[in-house]
Design brief:
6-stranded antiparallel β-sheet, 485 residues, single chain, 6-stranded mixed β-sheet, 2 domains, 12 helices, alpha+beta, FAD/NAD(P)-binding domain, binds flavin-adenine dinucleotide
Length: 485
């Protein structure tokens, strides 16, 4: 496959979903010739039904649209950075309260028309079964990557680094866990109080029985037909294990073996363990609690656990087919495969979860490969931004337990001490100042992010460039070599 088109640098993008469409658009807007492949409509993944690009396979919601929520901030950053996906989403929005939901048909049609109209994009509606030899190439084939290409990628990375389903257990914010009830310990650490890598929720026989009862009665998200074979020993949902016998969990993921509650000096009947998810200790994962319970049920049932009655969820549990790589091991900070220079991953396959997160990675990879092709310096988004926080997670997450993640404020560097506290009342002694309430803290995190985004935007978006007004009729014509870089 050649690497130039009409003398212009050529980049190959495989997959015209949320990530691939955004990457192709950002490259094309920067004067790079793009060869974009998608196997639809000839061949579709089990979740896709339309021939259009950027198809929303399930919900038509792109989630919260306010800065109080990290995904709202991510969308605002994408708006300011000239994202195609968010521009078209805004243009095809339908009433949805504080969320951004879209008319999914008009949304995908809008993206497809923009891509088809772009003079720098050549579309190939064909299935790609091998990693293209041409470089650079961006693979954005999604969670349901066509099996042949998926296994080729598995061979290239080593099977153990490419996953075909995700069994996600809920993740909680540390400051919503009551440390007066949970205790810190690792199994068999001889109960040295306060040490140990895990937070442990001690359950009495009765508390355990109530928890199991609730799991058995709870409502779950139905499996998609193509996920039928998903439940196998390696990833049984916790409610499925409970169905196997009332004590199954107490002898399985909730076994109390090697754990003594220092407050009682006794071994609980069962223990729910929480493992640190990020280096700063802001996020804690409920070990072994992968689940298909509906979100509302997860809130109700996991908050039944002692010490978690005020639990705030950074991520909910889920189990679904999902092709993704172990990003901390396989990807560098530009989402390039460490062992295959010139091959980039974007979207869900790179280890994020969600429509918006996938498109955001498409943006970052498109800009990064364009700058490389134009011989410009590389720019990574500041860590305080939602884009930067996502990249940081892909780089710094615990590789041993890597799981795809939605964007959430737990991934952001914490606010400075003072900024995270309520202002001292005039004349009040320099006493302990209360932590900011969550809503105000998130507002401050968002303001800090948008502030630091400005400089990044000036570097990656030419001030003269403004997304074409009036929607998807394509960008302004692009003078060669100038414009956004
Ligand atoms: C069943 C299911 C439901 C989901 N529901 C939601 C939800 O409600 N909300 C949410 O935020 N996220 C949801 N997700 C997660 C995720 O956000 C979406 O899957 C999102 O579409 C991922 O974007 P992407 O660009 O990575 O991949 P996709 O949007 O899936 O795009 C990949 C594209 O690559 C093409 N392709 C694949 N293999 C090949 C090949 N070998 N050759 C050529 N083309 C190929 C496909 O045709 C497709 O167009 C869901 C995922 C699944 C699997």
């Amino acid at each position: 496959m050649e690497s130039s088109l009409n003398g212009a640098e050529l980049v190959t993008v495989v997959g015209a979903g949320l990530a691939g469409s955004e990457a192709a658009w950002q490259l094309a807007e920067r004067g790079i010739a793009v060869r974009l492949f998608d196997m639809k409509p000839e061949r579709r993944s089990p979740a896709h039904s339309s021939g259009d690009f950027a198809e929303l396979v399930c919900s038509n919601s792109l989630r919260a649209n306010t800065l109080g929520n990290a995904v709202g901030l991510l969308k605002e950053e994408m708006r300011r950075l000239g994202s195609l996906v968010i521009r078209v989403a805004d243009e095809t929005a339908v009433p949805a309260g504080k969320a951004l939901a879209v008319d999914r048909v008009r949304f995908s049609r809008g993206i497809t028309e923009a891509i088809e109209a772009h003079p720098n994009i050549e579309i190939h509606r064909e299935r790609v079964v091998r990693i293209p030899e041409a470089r650079p190439v961006i693979l954005a084939t999604g969670p349901l990557t066509d099996p042949e290409l998926a296994s080729e990628l598995g061979n290239a990375l080593g099977e153990e680094y490419l996953y075909f389903y995700d069994a996600i257990s809920p993740t909680l914010y540390a400051d919503s866990i009551d440390e007066d009830i949970v205790f810190r310990a690792s199994r068999y650490d001889d109960g040295v109080e306060g040490e140990g890598d895990y937070l442990n929720v001690p359950l009495s026989r009765e508390e355990y029985a109530n928890f199991v009862e609730a799991l058995l009665d709870a409502e779950t998200v139905p499996l998609h037909e193509f996920e039928a074979a998903l439940y196998f020993e390696g990833c049984l949902p916790i409610e499925e294990m409970a169905r196997r016998g009332r004590e199954t969990l107490a002898f399985g993921p909730l076994k109390p073996v090697g754990l003594v509650n220092p407050r009682t000096g006794k071994r609980p009947h069962a223990v729910v363990q929480l493992r640190q998810e990020d280096r700063s200790g802001t996020l804690w994962n409920l070990v072994g609690c992968q689940t298909k319970l509906r979100v509302g049920e997860q809130k109700r049932i996991f908050r039944m656990l002692p010490g978690l009655d005020g639990a705030v969820f950074a991520r909910f549990g889920s189990i679904h087919r999902n092709t993704y790589v172990n990003a901390p091991v396989q990807l560098d900070e530009r989402l390039q495969l460490r062992n295959r220079p010139g091959v980039y991953l974007a979207g869900q396959i790179a280890g994020v979860e969600g429509y918006v997160e996938s498109a955001a990675l498409g943006y970052l990879t498109g800009v990064s490969v364009a700058r490389e092709s134009l011989g410009l310096s590389q720019e990574v988004p500041p860590p305080e931004t939602a884009h930067g926080a996502l990249l940081r997670h892909l780089q710094n997450a615990n590789a041993k337990y890597f799981q795809p993640m939605n964007v959430n404020y737990g991934l952001f560097p914490p606010l400075e001490h003072d900024a995270a506290r309520v202002p001292a009342k005039p004349g009040s002694p320099r006493g302990r100042r209360q932590k900011l309430p969550k809503r105000e803290k998130n507002q401050k995190l968002a303001e800090r992010a948008l502030e630091s985004l400005t400089a990044y935007r000036e570097r990656v978006c030419d001030p003269g460039f403004a997304p074409a007004a009036g929607g998807v009729s394509g960008p302004p014509p692009f003078p060669s070599g100038e414009g956004v870089a």
